[in-house]
């Protein structure tokens, strides 16, 4: 285990009924709020009316900024920044999943910057200050509710980049599993896959040979995510299943799983970001395409951890190479069972575009310092996704 510093300043209010606290918690940071949300599902479910009522009761003036889409767009973020500045916004409230929260984070940083917000994503500028952010989570997936990361798609250049900074951490996040009861089956599955990918990026890219605490923690989270996802796909209003899935997805990327691992990377996300930037497929769907191929690529170079994965997550025994291969195959079978695509063709992506996709990914690989991933290697992995 490597030395580490773990500091997560996000306050979590977890459990049914905690939505009532959003007004009081937000009012601690300002009186004029920008409410960021998605395509309108929270209005259909009544969550929007409840949030605005609680904010109003706490004395907040609310300005709306709806319309965030999956794979959130830079143009929409820029519009939100303009709204925040024009209305002298003091605090931002994000109501939704990772796309909404990431957009709110970008607005919170961009509103106080003297330059364009995309400079943060190009690693040209550092985030120095942000507007305070509170969150109401409605989708178990990205973990953005308790971390300092954000991912935005530049709709002009078709680049999907991410950046992290502790100043982006929400001040308060409300995690009420009942708010996820109405999430459709496909997005429930995509969210679970995203959470699994976050864990496995850490699990397979650390070079520390002895991380038993982290390994068992991550293996347990993967098993729990798979089991709880299966449970809620059968019964969408299963509170325990939704609660387990929600908290596991948060833990997957809140710093705890990575603590003590040393340097890690996000190569699967690096490749997938090009798929969702170029073809606007759901992030989780892109990951279920990339993950098995990347795992096969990595297992040929560093097989030991893949053997451990097959043994501990799927209970496999036998020859090590067989166990590694079977573990990857069983994970892919789970993706298929929950109806997520596992090939480019299945997602409607022409394999002739593989060089274009790889070229798009190279820029992000450089920003994320994934030096071992050149265009040829990315093409090789993508070809195995066909």
Give the tags.
six-stranded parallel sheet; Dehydroquinate synthase-like, alpha domain; 8 strands; 386 residues; Rossmann fold; alpha/beta
Folded structure, characterized:
The protein is α/β, with parallel strands linked by helices and 386 residues long. The protein has two domains: 11-179, Rossmann fold (3-Layer(aba) Sandwich), CATH 3.40.50.1970; 184-383, Up-down Bundle (Dehydroquinate synthase-like, alpha domain). The protein is 50% helix and 11% strand. The chain has a six-stranded parallel β-sheet, sandwiched between helices. A two-stranded antiparallel sheet has the order 6-7. The longest helix is centred in the middle third of the chain and has 23 residues, at 212-234. It starts with 10 loop residues before the first strand and ends with a helix. The mean pLDDT is 97.
**CATH fold name of the largest domain, please?**
Dehydroquinate synthase-like, alpha domain
Task: Let me know the largest β-sheet.
Answer: 6 strands, parallel
* Structure annotation, total helices: 15
Q: Kindly report the spatial arrangement of strands forming the biggest sheet.
A: 1-8-5-4-2-3
**What is the CATH superfamily classification of the largest domain?**
Dehydroquinate synthase-like - alpha domain
- What oligomeric state best describes the polypeptide chains here? single chain
Parts with pLDDT < 50 across at least 5 consecutive residues: none
Number of domains: 2
Proportion in β-strands: 5-15%
Helicity, as a percent range: 40-55%
| CATH architecture call of the largest domain | Up-down Bundle
Average pLDDT confidence is 97
- What is the end-to-end distance? 37 Å
């Amino acid at each position: 285990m490597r030395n580490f510093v773990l500091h997560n300043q996000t306050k979590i209010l977890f459990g049914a009924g905690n939505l009532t606290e959003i007004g009081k918690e937000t009012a601690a940071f300002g009186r004029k709020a920008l409410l960021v949300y998605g395509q309108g599902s929270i209005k259909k479910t009544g969550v929007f009316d409840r949030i605005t009522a609680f904010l109003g009761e706490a004395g907040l003036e609310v300005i709306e900024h709806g319309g965030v889409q999956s794979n959130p767009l830079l143009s929409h973020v820029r519009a939100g920044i303009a709204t925040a500045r024009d209305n002298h916004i003091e605090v931002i409230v994000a109501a939704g999943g990772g796309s909404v929260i990431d957009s709110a984070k970008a607005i919170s940083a961009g509103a106080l910057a003297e330059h364009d917000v995309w400079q943060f994503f190009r690693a040209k500028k550092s985030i120095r200050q942000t507007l305070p952010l509170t969150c109401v989570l409605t989708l178990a997936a990205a973990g953005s509710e308790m971390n300092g990361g954000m991912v935005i798609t530049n709709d002009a250049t078709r680049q999907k980049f991410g950046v992290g900074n502790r100043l982006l951490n929400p001040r308060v996040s409300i995690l009420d599993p009942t708010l996820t009861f109405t999430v459709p089956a496909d997005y429930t599955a995509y969210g679970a896959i995203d959470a699994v990918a976050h864990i496995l990026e850490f699990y397979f890219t650390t070079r520390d040979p002895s991380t038993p605490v982290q390994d068992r923690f991550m293996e347990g989270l993967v098993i729990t995510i798979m089991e709880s996802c299966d449970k809620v796909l059968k019964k969408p209003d299963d509170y325990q299943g939704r609660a387990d899935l929600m908290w596991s997805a948060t833990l997957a990327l809140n710093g705890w799983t990575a603590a003590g691992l040393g340097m890690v990377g996000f190569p699967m996300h690096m490749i997938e970001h090009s798929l969702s930037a170029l073809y606007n497929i759901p992030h989780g769907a892109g990951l279920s395409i990339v993950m098995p191929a990347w795992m096969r690529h990595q297992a040929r170079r560093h097989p030991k951890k893949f053997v451990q994965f097959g043994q501990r997550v799927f209970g496999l025994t036998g020859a090590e190479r067989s166990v590694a291969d079977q573990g990857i195959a069983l994970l892919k079978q789970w993706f298929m069972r929950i109806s997520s695509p596992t090939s480019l063709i299945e997602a409607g992506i022409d394999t002739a575009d593989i060089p274009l996709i790889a070229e798009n990914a190279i820029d992000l690989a450089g920003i994320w310092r994934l030096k071992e991933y050149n265009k040829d290697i990315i093409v090789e992995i993508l070809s195995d996704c066909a």
